[in-house]
Design brief:
This protein has 117 residues and is an all-beta fold. It has no helices and ten strands. The strands form two sheets. It has a six-stranded mixed beta sheet, with no helix packed on it. The protein has a four-stranded antiparallel beta sheet with strand order 1-3-8-7, with no helix packed on it. It is globular.
């Protein structure tokens, strides 16, 4: 059974940093592209960043230069390093299988990120 569990969220001031983790089980992690998505209060779910099996990456324009996605296949874990956080980055961040999209039913429960002064 596919399972993805996110952690690392928290409350920070603008300009702060957080590292999100996504631990996977139930599938051959190294073979799949993975994505981070977020849902801001009152808004639809939106794509943030992806990494493919070859470690190619893609980012939402508004997070380019601030966020870095990476993966450790041995640990079956994907990361999102978020620097220079802005109020607009507030939301519930979740991970899922897919590149620039998330496969239905694969998304984890999410971790809350609050950026506020």
């Amino acid at each position: 059974q596919v399972q993805l569990v996110e952690s690392g969220g928290g409350s920070v001031q603008p300009g702060g940093s957080l590292r999100l983790s996504c631990v996977a089980s139930g599938f051959d992690f190294r073979l799949y592209g993975l994505s981070w998505v977020r849902q801001a209060p009152g808004k639809d779910l939106g794509w943030v960043s992806s990494i493919n099996s070859g470690r190619g990456t893609a980012y939402l324009d508004s997070v380019k230069g601030r966020f870095t996605i990476s993966r450790d296949n041995a640990k079956k874990t994907m990361y999102l390093d978020m620097n220079g956080l802005e109020v607009e980055d507030t939301g519930v961040y979740s991970c899922g299988i897919g590149f620039r999209t998330v496969r239905l039913g694969s998304r984890g429960q999410g971790t809350q990120v609050i950026v506020s002064s």
